[in-house]
Give the backbone structure.
Amino acid sequence: MQWVSEKVRYRWAVVVLTLLSACTLASQGAYAFSYTNGIEESSWRFDGSVFECSLTHNVPFYGEAVFKTRAGEAAKFTLVPLAERLKTGQASLILQPPAWRHNLRPIDLGYVPVKRGEEPVVLGDDLAERLLAELNTGYEMELTRMPWYGAEQSSRVHVSPIGFRDAYRRYLGCLGDLLPANFDQIRRTAIYFGSALFEPLPPDQRRKLDNIVRYCEADPSVTEFYIDGHTDSVGTRADNYALSENRAKEVTKYLVSKGLPEERIKVRWHGERYPTVHNTTVAGRAKNRRVTIRLERDPALIPNVMEM
């Protein structure tokens, strides 16, 4: 009888342990649904040009994790889902150490904003650079947030470091070849002048023009340039009209000397007719003493690596 009772207790113990295990698994499943890569499936894709450098990681059944640096801008990280998954709010961001590095602990980076849309998670320069550095040392990104459609399970997106280093090395090399500015930064450029009637272009304003020239050498889609001269209201209208002409022509001469095709440049001058702000203050007059350069593109010629 004693042997029978021990056998019964053993069976009950097995049943209890099985139930506890099932409950544990159920609670874990209710906590998070993971989007992750297997060891053999993880990969990173590098794409680069003088316009931008990017690293793209495919997350199965979720979408892509992308690091991107455009010319003239800081790095950023974005999640690009196949469909909307995450609820607007805050997501936890944790870096998990490699399994074989038992001496390392997870790094809790706190919470990051989530917004429903095509790019629900967008992280700026400082955090993007931190993530790049930690992925390079073997940490895995783990971002957790409730789904927008009201399920009880959280969604957990994993960004694996497997295959990262080689792509990251190429990405770093690409950064050194980026142009100093992108099209959005130079498509409308203002060159400012001092109050003197005759003065050379200041060095900081020449750098703006040099950036335009360098960009246009790389992008064949820029086909037209509109240059407009303006002044403040100090002096007579006739003098200001002539002064705006001289400054517009000075900027044009500089751009042509650097290689821009003169036949594609349209030059106009307006004197004091179109102030951007009131001329009643010193700061306002300084804003109005300007030559503006507007770039126009042929959409059919825009390189594939760029966006309009």
